[in-house]
Amino acid sequence: MRWWWSSLGFICNQLIIMNNQTNMDSNLINKLKQDSRYLQISIPYDKEDELIRFDNGVMNELECNVEFTPPMLNAEDQLLEFVIDLKEGKMLNWNFEGDYMRMWAKVCDGGTYTLLDSEKKPIWQIRGYVPNKLIPPFENGYGDYIELAIEADGKVVDWPAMPDFSDFVADGRSPEPIKTNKWHRAEVAYWQVRGMKLSREEIEWLVEKLQVLS
Q1: Rounded to whole angstroms, how far apart are CA atoms 18 and 174?
Q2: Which of 15, 106, 123, 141 gives 132 a disulfide partner, CB atoms 3.0 to 4.6 angstroms apart?
């Protein structure tokens, strides 16, 4: 019988821990709802990368225009960076000469998503997969995709009236400095070559990249 009481005690202890975690999660969600006013999105960008596409709803004219530069491009850090007003569902400082722009991106775990307060100070952050409970597409984003349709005034089509912050509770953390695309690429290179036998040319390439970052 002693083993039975021991098992029961373990189960009760786990239930207490789960209940405490649920209360903590609920408190964090309430705090994020209360304090979050903006969402900053930062994702690596390479003009030659086919995993990020833009169009204006007219035969993909933007893709065909070799001179097209995304209005949210941070060229120095090779990032697409933009801020959305969570209450208004609207891009801040939107500057696009057109009536409509659509962005489709397969980001996977390469993005950084930061919740900002009313003074635009960072309060909570996800680094990695897309929080698709907050960012479209909601039903089939799978944590990999971002799809935004943006009107002339910066309004994001079908932005949720009641933002869902549950992804930030599950995977979030206190904010950290956002890595440039150079750092992101170095991390990817490291994990790709780890445990593999490199050629001299590959080693020289990796050393060169790391010297640029130092």
Answers
A1: 22
A2: 141
Q: Is the pTM of this model over 0.85?
A: no
Three-class DSSP category at 41: strand
Sheet holding 52-55, edge to edge: 52-55, 100-106, 145-151
Backbone angles phi, psi at 122, to 5 degrees: -65, 135
Lowest mean pLDDT among 23-27, 103-107, 153-157, 164-168: 23-27
Chain-centre distance for alpha carbon 100: 23
Tens digits of residue pLDDT in 18-56:
443 444 467 888 889 999 999 999 999 988 778 888 888
Nearby residues of 44 by Cβ (< 8 Å), 6 or more positions away: 78, 79, 80, 110, 111, 181, 184, 185
Q: Which residues contact 161 (CB under 8 A, 6 or more apart)?
A: 89
Report d(CA 193, CA 204) in Å as an integer: 13
CA pair distance 122, 172, nearest whole angstrom: 12
Q: CA 57 to CA 98: how far, in whole Å?
A: 11
